[in-house]
Amino acid sequence: MGGMLARILILGSGTLAGLAGVDHPPSTTLTAVALPSPIPARPGYLVPYTDPRHGTRVVRVSDGTAMGVDLSAKTRISHMYAKNQPWNCDGTLLMLDWTYPCQVLNGTTFARLRQISQPSQAIWSHTDPNLTYGRNGNTVVSCTMTTGAVTTLATLSAYSAISIGEGEGNLDNADRWMALYATTTGGARQVAVFDMIAKTITATLAITSPTFNTCTMSQSGNYVVVQWGTSGSGAQRGIEVYDRSLQFQRQIHTSGGGHFDLGYDTAGNEVIVITSPNDRSLIMRRLDTGATTTLLGTTLMGYNIHVSCRNIQDPGWATISEFTGNPDIHYAYTQDVFSVRLDPSATGNAPVRRFAQICHADDVLPADYEHQAHACVSPDGSRAIFASDWRDSTGTVHAYVAQAAPAGNQGPGIAKPATAPVTLTLP
Q1: What spatial distance separates the first Cα and last Cα of the chain, rounded to whole Å?
Q2: Element (H, E) at 67
Q3: pTM of the full predicted structure?
Q4: Distance CA 388, CA 102 (A)
Q5: What is the distance between the alpha carbons of residues 390 and 374, in angstroms, rounded to a whole number?
């Protein structure tokens, strides 16, 4: 599991390891910004487009013809989900895995490199830029994304089937621990912690709840967070925090279906970022204490959001995208992809980095899943990928990458200089 690449580690109180020399959109406040009228035509494939509201560079990185995907049968070519990092750990490769086989792109120019039959629920390694991990039946596997070669890491014979958090789970940042939703050969359901080094199950939790949503490791590997499919208080309801031995710590939220992700705040505390259980505001809560911070207030936010904290080399931010329509179109969060600063001192108007306007159809509601943006940021937090139908009459959905556009940039992608890890103290 060792790797030569930088990854986020807590170094001390308020100090995180990160990368220098990375361009991000400027910090600002979240205000309502109307879409341009008329909406610009859908950008051409790999043709840079300047977002007229935010001044960022946007590139469409998918195309049915170039990638050999029949869009009459599959209406979307994009990354998978907000909590599934599509870039590899050094940013050199980008995986579009909504379709199978997936498309593997150059991570900075976005040129198509190859097509790979990725494993089920594929997630990139945090330490090896050529590997993804996944599952097949009751086995944990890895896949070399340059060749497509699949290696079985462990066959878990006590189980008939396993799932990496039902497609929403992540490993810890060191690739040591994996949280599984598992069904035993006798039909019992469990949450299980898998040790990627010892290749064994180290803890299990019997599931008594009739419904289950997802489970995932926290970025440190110290916690397992489980979202049950039923809202409310009481055991195996809402969202619960367990330690790595699957000993219950606390209920962190009452929602059985609200979208969330796990990250670090600017003080180095592990947090969950999610909509408040009481109103439409965006909050974060510490996993170790449950202490709550309101990041963005009710006049700015709405309920229909996805959250991404996959910026593990640029901690202290969470990226938000929405899927909504009337009557919420007047709120500031609509039609926008932005990152919000995870500052424990925030009081409802935390700074944001605005990446792009989504330009989706007016009524992209929960039932219209393929048309949701599912925005996710790159490991260094400098780029955001999102899906959009661009209000196109064909209904096809493509992937777009938005990033800051410094002077002198050439080509559709922004190639950043290689930099060594630095110690960064977040103000």
Answers
A1: 32
A2: helix 64-67
A3: 0.90
A4: 18
A5: 14
